[in-house]
C-alpha cells in the first residue's frame, strides 16, 4: 500500500518509473489525487468563487445519494481550501452524522434557526475532521417545522434571512450546501428560496428521471414568484456501475436532457461511500484513496472550475 504521507515526488522521479505521467497509469493517478486529499493546497487548490455560492441539493425521490453528495462534495471543497457550510434540513440528520456533528434533541439546530429561537452563531458547529467544514445540524424536532412554518410571516424566506445573518456574523464562507429532505414541502421551498443554484443528484438506475419533472416545475414556480435568480447549475450522476449497459443509457439520457449542467465526473457505486457515515465521516476522511473519494474530489474540482470559467467568460 502506498504511503501517501511520505511520498517524495523528487525521489520518485529518479526511479525507473519516474518518467511515467499519472495520466498514463490509473494507480499513479489515484495515488496523486489521494495525496492531494491528505495534503491539500498549492497548485491543486480549486479556484475560489468571486462571491459566496449557495447551492441546494434537491431531489424529492429518496435513495438517490442526496445527502451523500452534499456532505462529500462539501468535504471535497473543504480539503481543497474552501470554507464550506452544510445546512442540514432533513429531520433524519444524516448529513450531520456524516460530518461527525452531534444532533440530538436539545442542540441548537436548523429547526430553532427556522422558527427564530436561535441565531446562526448558536447553531453552527465545526466538523472534527476539517476546520474549514462547518455544519448547522438537524434534529428530529425539524419534523414538526413544516406545520409550524405555515402560520409564520415570510415563511418561505426564513432560511435565506438566516444565511445572510451568517455573513453578517463574520463567517468567511465560500460555499453553502443545503441538504433537503426527500419531499417538496416548506423545508425544500425554504432551501430553494435561500439558494441561487440547485444541484440535482440522479442515480444511474431505471426510472432515473421519474419525478425530476415535478422538481423542475417546483423550481420554476419558486423562480417565478420568490427567487428569480434560482437555476439548475449542476447535475451529478450517482451510483454509476460501468459494468452495466443501463448505467451508460441513463447517463446518456440525463446528459441529453440537462446538457452542460451534467458533470463529467460520475460517482460510482462504492462500499466505502456507504460505510463512511457509520463512522461519522465523509468518504474523504474514511478512505481518501478510494474510488468514491476520488470521484467526489474530481466532482468538486469540476464544479468549482466550471463556475470560474463561466465567470471569466462573462467578464470578458
Describe this structure as you would to a colleague:
The protein has 316 residues and is α/β, with parallel strands linked by helices. It is built from 14 helices and seven strands. It has a seven-stranded mixed β-sheet, sandwiched between helices. A hairpin with a 6-residue loop joins strand 3 (125-126) and strand 4 (133-136). Helix 8 crosses helix 9. Mean pLDDT is 85; it is low at 1-5.
Radius of gyration, in angstroms, nearest whole number = 20 Å
Distance between the termini: 47 Å
Helix/strand order, N-terminal first: HHEHEHHHEEHHEHEHEHHHH
- Sequence stretches where pLDDT stays below 50 over 5 or more residues: 1-5
Number of strands: 7
Strand content: 5-15%
C-alpha geometry: globular
Work out the helicity level: 40-55%
- Biggest sheet statistics: 7 strands, mixed
Strand order of the largest sheet: 3-4-2-5-1-6-7
Q: Whole-number average pLDDT?
A: 85
Q: In brief, what are we looking at here?
A:
The protein is of the alpha/beta class and 316 residues long.
Features:
about 325 residues; alpha/beta; seven-stranded mixed sheet; 7 strands
Q: What secondary-structure arrangement, pairings included, does this model have?
A:
Elements: H1 9-13, H2 26-38, E1 53-57, H3 66-79, E2 84-88, H4 94-98, H5 110-115, H6 120-123, E3 125-126, E4 133-136, H7 145-150, H8 158-168, E5 175-179, H9 186-194, E6 197-203, H10 212-225, E7 231-238, H11 245-258, H12 271-275, H13 283-286, H14 291-315
Parallel strand pairs: 1-5, 1-6, 2-4, 2-5, 6-7
Antiparallel strand pairs: 3-4
Amino acid at each position: 500500500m502506498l504511503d501517501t504521507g511520505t511520498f517524495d515526488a523528487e525521489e520518485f522521479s529518479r526511479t525507473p518509473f519516474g518518467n511515467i505521467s499519472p495520466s498514463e497509469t490509473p494507480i499513479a493517478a489515484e495515488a496523486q489525487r489521494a495525496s492531494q486529499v491528505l495534503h491539500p493546497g498549492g497548485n491543486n487548490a480549486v479556484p475560489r468563487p468571486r462571491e459566496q455560492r449557495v447551492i441546494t441539493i434537491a431531489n424529492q425521490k429518496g435513495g438517490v445519494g442526496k445527502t451523500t453528495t452534499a456532505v462529500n462534495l462539501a468535504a471535497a471543497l473543504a480539503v481543497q481550501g474552501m470554507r464550506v457550510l452544510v445546512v442540514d434540513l432533513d429531520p433524519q440528520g444524516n448529513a450531520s452524522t456524516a460530518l461527525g456533528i452531534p444532533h440530538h434533541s436539545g442542540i441548537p439546530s436548523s429547526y430553532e434557526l427556522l422558527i427564530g429561537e436561535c441565531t446562526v452563531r448558536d447553531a453552527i458547529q465545526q466538523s472534527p475532521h476539517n476546520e474549514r467544514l462547518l455544519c448547522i445540524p438537524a434534529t428530529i424536532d425539524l419534523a414538526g417545522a413544516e406545520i409550524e412554518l405555515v402560520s409564520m410571516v415570510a415563511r418561505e424566506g426564513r432560511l435565506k434571512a438566516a444565511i445572510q445573518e451568517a455573513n453578517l456574523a463574520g463567517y468567511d464562507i465560500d460555499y453553502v450546501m443545503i441538504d433537503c429532505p426527500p419531499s417538496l414541502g416548506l423545508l425544500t421551498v425554504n432551501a430553494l428560496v435561500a439558494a441561487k443554484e440547485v444541484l440535482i443528484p440522479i442515480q444511474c438506475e431505471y426510472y432515473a428521471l421519474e419525478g425530476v419533472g415535478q422538481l423542475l416545475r417546483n423550481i420554476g414556480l419558486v423562480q417565478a414568484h420568490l427567487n428569480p435568480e434560482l437555476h439548475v447549475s449542476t447535475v451529478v450522476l450517482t451510483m454509476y456501475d460501468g459494468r452495466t449497459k443501463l448505467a451508460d443509457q441513463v447517463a446518456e439520457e440525463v446528459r441529453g436532457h440537462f446538457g452542460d449542467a451534467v458533470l463529467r465526473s460520475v460517482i460510482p457505486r462504492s462500499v466505502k461511500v456507504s460505510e463512511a457515515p457509520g463512522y461519522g465521516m465523509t468518504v474523504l476522511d474514511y478512505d481518501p484513496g478510494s474510488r468514491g473519494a476520488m470521484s467526489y474530489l474530481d466532482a468538486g474540482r469540476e464544479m468549482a472550475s466550471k463556475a470560474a470559467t463561466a465567470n471569466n467568460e462573462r467578464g470578458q
